[in-house]
Amino acid sequence: MRWLWLVLLIAAGSVAPATAEDCAAGLRPFSDARGVACIPEQPQRIVALNDQIVALPLYELGAPVVGSAGRVQADGTVYLRGGMDTLGIDFANTDITYVGGFDALDIEAIASLQPDLIIGGSYTDAAQIEQLQLIAPTIVIDNGALGLVGTLRALADASGRSGDFEARYQRYLGNLERTKSYIGDPSKLSATLTFMFPNGEDLWVYRAGLGAISQLLSDLGVSQPRAVAALPDTQASWSPELIQQLDADFIFGFYRQQPDATPQAVRDAYEHFAPGWCEALSACRNGQFILLPGPTFGSTMTGLELALDLVETHIAARAYTPREGE
Are 273 and 240 in contact, with CB atoms under 8 Å apart? Predict the structure, then answer.
């Protein structure tokens, strides 16, 4: 009977028109990764198909998020990735309903929420997008192509919160200029972004794509070591034998508020990965290897503002030793 109810509900929906001219009253055209769709002028019930990339930025904007994909802990508890760290929210303390994982969506749960707008990404299965389109207008935001700011701006537009986003973004840009004035010429500084797994077996290096912290360093105009800047992809697994190629004025890593990924555990993991690594890198020898609280950044304006505050504190508000050579 549940599936009969779902079929009837889906049948009652309508596929979003392919052209803007077809938009009915109360709807407006919106350009997404698939073309032009008609979406509500002021959505009232939004379902997000990703927690960290879609749900959190929407919630931050004050958009009416009624459902979201999420993650499942080992004990079966569901949670919004980065939600508590970034915005202090989760499924347990909001009215957001869990609708499956971003790669295992519960179509029936989504339909039961009676959304008037569904927002997914390029990672969302195309066949499921077609199913969801029958429930409510469904748009695809390609965060990889748009970048962090472009994605936030698109989500603000889709949810009718553009004014709120632009005001906050302009405030961020003003603070960014303040930080630049403290630093002097940020292009003379270099930084490397790394991510070490707590077991010390894998080190990932990021040219871009690491959420708010990558965006912030790019906005500041901080440079990267040649080997990092030359990466063909946004990230790469690194070899211990090439550890010296990562040297920079500052090297950033990340810890989490979890027993296996505390600051000391992560530092130990770097040593396990490349014994003697700290002596091999001038940044580490000079006390300029910085561990940041990773989950708090994510893909929100809150994360971007926090990244700016932390980077300003560690770079502009202290004396530092420039790296030794290129």
Answer: yes
pLDDT digits (tens, 9 = 90+) for 169-217: 999 999 999 999 999 999 999 999 999 988 999 999 999 988 999 999 9
Please indicate, yes or no, whether the overall pTM of this predicted structure exceeds 0.85. yes
**Is there a contact between 157 and 43 (Cβ–Cβ < 8 Å)?**
no
pLDDT in tens, 276-305: 999 999 999 999 999 998 766 788 999 999
3-state secondary structure string across 254-269: EECCCCCCCHHHHHHH
Domains and CATH numbers, the chain: 9-163 (3.40.50.1980), 173-316 (3.40.50.1980)
Q: How far apart are CA 78 and CA 63, in angstroms?
A: 21
Give the end-to-end CA distance of the chain in Å, rounded to a whole number: 68
Q: How many C-beta atoms lie closer than 10 Å to residue 265's C-beta?
A: 17
Question: Hey, what are 202's tokens?
Answer: 């894998």
CA 94 and chain centroid, separation: 20
